[in-house]
Design goal:
alpha+beta, Lipocalin, 2 domains, 9-stranded antiparallel beta sheet, 5-stranded mixed beta sheet, 22 strands
């Protein structure tokens, strides 16, 4: 399950992914040494494209775990071996090397895609699965649709904010997941707007953990979405303690104990850990934290989060 989520999360940030393009019998394909085919971007060089939707084969932008494939890319092809990609963080375009493969496949920034459609008005790219030195050109079933900025402005007379709106099909799908999750907490799913905590006491501090993307994980920050994690510090506690456990937060903001997040050498240790950590949740956390449930498409629903809570009993804790 997590592998699928990571596959989708690899393309959440524009500058953090790579594209591969290709399709059979594509008119933009050129011969390489008179034998094999390579994609050519000559006909669309310099045209700025903005991604307007990212969907699976079934037409949904959300998967069964509530994870949204959000359109975020802006790009233009500088040449057949270079692509310019917009960075949301830096607010500017950066040029990256582009390597063309056969059968309309290309790679940039360690990601592979395949061109399904290419014109001066639009692009459709399919994400490919890659592992080690092998690329599966049959595709991952995730499609990225781009419109040229000029086409959006002068032909459609619209803007990308409108074009990126969630479809009715997505809304009905999420509504069905919400009903299931709010009926049975075990059917919780990832919230687009995660759970939030508001401390009612200066002695309790809450910090949401933020995933750090880098070269080693392909700039993947999907854990922020799929596994929201919170570090909670309780000063002036009755004793020193540290517990890690998961919590189901329902649509009313009520917390339900999940399970410990550590391993145990014996069942008695596990039972004692659950008893003590659940007591911390039912006392400190429920009394001194206001809990705002997670939401997807503005619909509150049960979601699963991870909590690391530390209690400090000594007088120095407040310094």
């Amino acid at each position: 399950m997590k592998l699928n989520i990571i596959t989708f999360g690899l393309t959440l940030l524009l500058i953090n992914a790579t594209i591969i393009v290709g399709c059979n019998n594509n008119p933009h394909i050129v011969k390489h040494n008179g034998e094999k085919d390579l994609i050519s971007f000559k006909s669309i060089e310099g045209i700025s494209y903005t991604e307007v939707n990212r969907r699976q084969k079934n037409g949904l932008s959300f998967n069964e775990y509530g994870y949204q494939l959000e359109p975020q890319w802006k790009l233009n092809f500088v040449s057949d071996d270079s692509v310019s990609i917009y960075s949301l963080n830096k607010k500017r375009f950066f040029n990256f090397p582009l390597s063309r493969g056969y059968d309309s496949v290309f790679n940039t920034i360690r990601t592979w895609l395949k061109v399904k459609k290419m014109s001066k008005d639009s692009l459709v790219l399919e994400m490919l699965k890659a592992q080690n030195d092998t690329v599966d050109i049959t595709g991952a079933g995730v499609y990225m649709t781009f419109y040229a900025d000029n086409y959006v402005k002068n032909v459609l007379r619209s803007d990308t904010t409108i074009l990126r709106r969630v479809s009715r099909k997505d809304s009905l799908f999420i509504k069905s997941l919400v009903i299931k999750a709010n009926t049975d907490i075990k059917k919780a799913f990832a919230a687009r707007q995660p759970v939030a905590f508001i401390s009612k006491s200066p002695s309790i501090k809450v910090e949401k953990w933020k995933a750090e993307g880098g070269l080693l994980n392909n700039f993947d920050t999907s854990d922020d979405y799929f596994d929201p994690t919170y570090n909670i510090t309780i000063n002036k506690a009755h004793t020193n303690f540290y517990y890690s456990f998961s919590v189901y937060v329902d649509d009313k903001g009520q917390m339900h104990y999940g399970e410990p997040l550590i391993a145990f050498t014996g069942e008695s240790f596990r039972e004692n850990y659950i008893h003590e950590s659940q007591a911390v949740m039912n006392s400190y956390l429920k009394y001194y934290l206001q809990v705002i449930p997670g939401k997807t498409l503005n619909m509150p629903h049960t979601s699963l989060i991870n909590i690391h809570v530390e209690g400090k009993a000594d007088a120095l804790a407040m310094r």
